[in-house]
Amino acid sequence: MDDTATLRARNFDFWARTAPGWVHQTDRHDEIGRPLGAVALDWLRPQAGERVLDVGCGCGGTTAEIARVVAPLGSAVGLDLAEAMVATARNRFTAPDGAGLRFVAGDVETLDAVPGAPFDAVYSRMTLMLLADPVAGLTTVRRSMRAGARLAATVFRDGRVNPWLPAALLGAAAHLGPMPPLPIGDEPGPFAFADPARVTRLLTAAGFTDVGIHPYDVTLDAPDDPEVVTEWLIEIGPAGAAYRDAEPTTQGQARAGVARLLERFRTAGAGYRLPTGLWLITARSDGTSTP
Ligand SMILES: C[S@@+](CC[C@H](N)C(=O)[O-])C[C@H]1O[C@@H](n2cnc3c(N)ncnc32)[C@H](O)[C@@H]1O
């Protein structure tokens, strides 16, 4: 396993290079990706007037949704490493009447506390497994919460219950040249939080209590349009940066390669159904070191 500084630099570089793909796909991802975080929002039940943090907010769709729920008087803060995604979130959304909505660019691992702290609740969709030093990042989150505040996050389980995810990389990589290094062992990546015992250890080490790790299966429904669906998956994944740099012919070959591997998840005329296995992570702040 590489050292933390190397992993952190790799994560920063990855998201700087992948952000343009997320920006391009933002509306599509908000729509198809909705089931990826719905269960965490249900558990969290943000209330009017609360302050809520969204860790790894991407282009801001979930943060804006939370801001609408906590209005009036509440506020939502979206934090993300990728400046281009934060800039996009700021352009896309304004605060609903009576609520605060703010987007912050920063690395959750290196902040003392997230601007806007202390928070009553923290939400995070599909981000925590990507942290180079998860205990450092989770400790920042916990320090940014008031005593007893609640956390709800979703992450992938393992590759067996998310078969479309490796398919989206494998089908494209053959056409696109060098890819970012594949994670080894506990290195950050989509399946780095597959082991629930490890996830519990990380949250406990960061000072969380009442830790719960719950399996949750969803299906991502995508339209019956292979060109659109394969481009969405390539652009938000590890092949995204190389895809955007490639010639149109090569891009077409990459989409066709992914389409072949995803065919088993497609019903012609009905669309794609992508089976997705998540953990819902729930916990509370123990209330120490709240700013
Ligand atoms: C898989 S995306 C999920 C985005 C969004 N939550 C969603 O579900 O659409 C992971 C996000 O986490 C952000 N991220 C990764 N490492 C981070 C860190 N150390 N601090 C803050 N954000 C980070 C990335 O920039 C990216 O936007």
From TrEMBL:
<dbReference type="Pfam" id="PF13649">
    <property type="entry name" value="Methyltransf_25"/>
</dbReference>
<dbReference type="InterPro" id="IPR029063">
    <property type="entry name" value="SAM-dependent_MTases_sf"/>
</dbReference>
<dbReference type="InterPro" id="IPR041698">
    <property type="entry name" value="Methyltransf_25"/>
</dbReference>
<dbReference type="GO" id="GO:0008168">
    <property type="term" value="F:methyltransferase activity"/>
</dbReference>
<dbReference type="GO" id="GO:0032259">
    <property type="term" value="P:methylation"/>
</dbReference>
<keyword id="KW-0808">Transferase</keyword>
<feature type="domain" description="Methyltransferase">
    <location>
        <begin position="52"/>
        <end position="148"/>
    </location>
</feature>
<keyword id="KW-0489">Methyltransferase</keyword>
<protein>
    <submittedName>
        <fullName>Methyltransferase</fullName>
    </submittedName>
</protein>
